Amino acid sequence: MRAIDMHSHYYGGLVDDLLKRDRRPFVSRNAAGRLVLNAMTASTEMSDGYTDIPARLAWMDRNRIATQLMTFPGALGVDVMPAAEIAPAILSYNDHLAGLCAGSGGRFAGLAGLPLDDMSQAAAEMRRIRHDLRLPGVILPGNYFLSIEAVRRLAPVFDAAAETGALVMIHPGLMPGEAPPEPYPDTSVYRASVLNLQASLAQMGMTVLAGKLAEAWPSITFHLVNLGGTLPFVLERLEAVALSRPPHEPFPRESLRGMVYDCASLGPRALELAVRTFGADRIMLGTDYPIFTPDQVADTVEVAELTDAEKDMILAGTASRILDRLR
C-alpha cells in the first residue's frame, strides 16, 4: 500500500444530527432500515462506507491506499445553513473527525467544515481546526469561487488559515442563501453531475487565478478537485483568446501551478492531459469515496501513459509533501 487518497468524504459524526431533521438535507431510514441521505437534489441509500470505519479501511486495503483524506460532506449544504441552527453540529463533527484521525495510526487525515453563515464564527473555527484539532484544513463550497466578488467574502477565513498554513479544498457546493439548482429536463444526472459540474470547476479555478488568491495567501494550499474541471481541455483556447483580444497578453499558464488538483472520478486519458497541463507534482490521487466506489482506483494512475516518476508523484509524492508540511 503506497497511495494517498486526497478526495473522499465522511458522514459519520453528522448522521445523528441529520436524522433529527425533516427537511433537506436530512437522513431517514427506508423500509429495510437502511440509512438514506436526502441531499439538496437527490436521495441515496448510504453504503457502509459513509459511516463505517472498518468498511472504509477494508476498501482502502483492497485498493492499496495507505492514507485517506476524509472531508466534511460539503456538497450537502449543511455548512451554509443558518449558523445558530447548525454550528454546534459542525463543531461536533470536527471534534469527531479530529479524534478519528489522531487515533488512526496515520491511515486518516481530515478536512473540517465551517459554519459559513457567520463568517466571524467560521474564522474562529478555522483557527481552532489548525491550532487545537491539528487537522490540515477545510473544505469550502465552490460557489464562493464563481466570482472574485463572492470569494472576497471568505477573506476572514483565508486570513485565519494563513496564520499556520492550511489546505483549502474547493469542492462543488452552495453559498448561504442559494437555492439548489433545478434539474435539467432530460438526462439531468449527466448534464448536472458531469458537464455542468466540470465546467463550473474551471470557473472556480479562473477565480483563484484572476483573484490572485495564491499570491495573497501564499501559506494556503488551494486544492481544486476533479483535475480542475475542463481547464486542461480549454487551456489552449484560453491562450488563443488572450492573444487575439484585448489586452493581447499571454494567458498566465504557469499560474495554474499555484493550485493542486486531484483526479477523482476521472480516467487515465484525462489524467495524462492534466499532467501535461499542470505537471505531475501538482496532481494527487482522488477517489470521491464513498460517492464513487470503483475497486482498483489506483489503476487509473497505473495504466496512464506516464513515467514511473510521474505516477509515483500522483499516487503519493504530491500529497505527502503537502500533508507533511501541515502536520
Automatic annotation (TrEMBL):
Gene3D superfamilies (alphabetical): Metal-dependent hydrolases (3.20.20.140)
BP GO annotations: secondary metabolic process
MF GO annotations: carboxy-lyase activity; hydrolase activity
Record keyword Signal present: no
Keyword Lyase: yes
Sorted UniProt keywords: Lyase
Family matches, as InterPro entries: ACMSD, Amidohydro-rel, Metal_Hydrolase
Domain of life: Bacteria
Residue spans crossing the bilayer: none
GO cellular component, one term: cytoplasm
Domain annotation Amidohydrolase-related: ranges: 4-324
PANTHER family given in the database record: 2-AMINO-3-CARBOXYLMUCONATE-6-SEMIALDEHYDE DECARBOXYLASE, ISO-OROTATE DECARBOXYLASE (EUROFUNG)
Name this polypeptide is given: Amidohydrolase-related domain-containing protein
Annotated organism of origin: Prosthecodimorpha hirschii
